[in-house]
Amino acid sequence: MTTAGVEIPADFLANASRGADWAAWLERLPRLVRDVLEEWALTPDGTVSTGHGALVLPVLTGDGEPAALKLGWPHPEAEHEHLALRAWGGHGVVRLLRADPRRWVLLLERAEAGVDLDTLPVLEACEVIAGFYPRIHRPALPQLRLLSDQAARWSEGIPALRRHRAVPRRYVDQAASLARDFASDPATDGVLIHTDLHFQNVLAAKREPWLVIDPKPLSGDPAYELAPLLWNRWDEVLASGNPRWELLERFRTVVDAAGFDEERARAWVIVREIVNVMWALDEGSDAAVDDDWVTQAVTIVKAVQP
Fold first, then answer.
1. Of 7, 34, 36, 202, which has the most beta carbons under 10 Å away?
2. Least reliable range by pLDDT among 45-54, 125-134, 209-218
3. Of the candidates 47, 38, 50, 44, the residue with the CA atom closest to the CA atom of residue 13
4. What is the largest CA-CA distance in the chain?
5. Residue 292's pLDDT band (boundaries 50, 70, 90)?
């Protein structure tokens, strides 16, 4: 679909099949693109890119400066993205130039779309990301949701996995116990964290060699950040011939470079991976137990066991 000279990819429009909220937002999207381009005096300047829940359009501002216009599907994970970006003020992260939270629209500093940390050897990329942690971890904003609340909900939902064959029961019980502990641990909250800081969410840029994008902020625990570095670039884990060793190399690299408490980081990996299983099975039934995503999560849990 083309609107205001902007081609919205058909595969992104196909997200309408994901539910009524998606369908309604996608129906509004062409009008939203036209309105924001006009109101903010922006000129399209390249090809649209899309992520899991947003459309990003390279634009030129009225002053001729390159920028990126991000139009996001409204969902809780992205609700406070603009607040986190404003708090970071471009410190290792793309700068927020303008925001309309009511319409889930952001105007951002432009980075090099498609040039991300996948271009570096994986352990080097892990070290780059670990180097960002002290730059972005700071006292949490009062508006943010609490990781402890999520942990409490997970501790209640995880035990239902006992009836599935997808994951050994000992891992279900382990994750449920850890989630309960985190739910009542004061250190689970209090730090502004990104929660989805992985290789594709760090882009090459001009102002700095690399800049972080696409935060899903929470008030949380810095050690929670590590897990996505294990489940991304999964083809390299499989190609290594020794998945456990490959995963432990990544885990240890990040723990050492970031100065995380190893036991705490391991516990969060286990919880997050079992939650991934829970979410995957929420979308299906026993027929989903052999899904690659579920198998991957269980592999990671096994790999990080002490």
1. 202
2. 45-54
3. 50
4. 60
5. confident
Instruction: Please compute Rg for the chain using Cα positions.
Output: 20
Q: Which two tokens stand for residue 67?
A: 């920028």
Q: What is the pLDDT of residue 252?
A: 98
Share of the chain above pLDDT 70, in %: 96
Per DSSP, helices labelled H in 40-168 are 81-88, 122-136, 147-157
Question: Residue 193 is encoded by which pair of tokens?
Answer: 């964290």
pTM of the full structure? 0.93
62 Ramachandran zone, left/alpha/beta (phi>0; psi -120 to 50)? alpha
Q: Measuring CA to CA, which residue among 199, 66, 65 is closest to residue 57? A: 66
Q: pLDDT value at position 9?
A: 86
Helix axis angle for 243-258 and 292-304, nearest 10°, is 60
Asked whether the beta carbons of 104 and 74 are under 8 A apart, the reply is yes
* Catalytic residue annotation: 196
Burial 26-62 (b: 16+ CB within 10 A, else e): beebbebbeebbeebebebbeebbeeebbbbbbbbbe
d(CA 61, CA 41): 6
Domains parsed from the chain with CATH numbers: 2-109 (3.30.200.20), 117-304 (3.90.1200.10)
Whether residue 202 contacts residue 116, with contact meaning beta carbons closer than 8 Å, is answered with yes
| Phi/psi at 183 (5° precision) | -60, -30
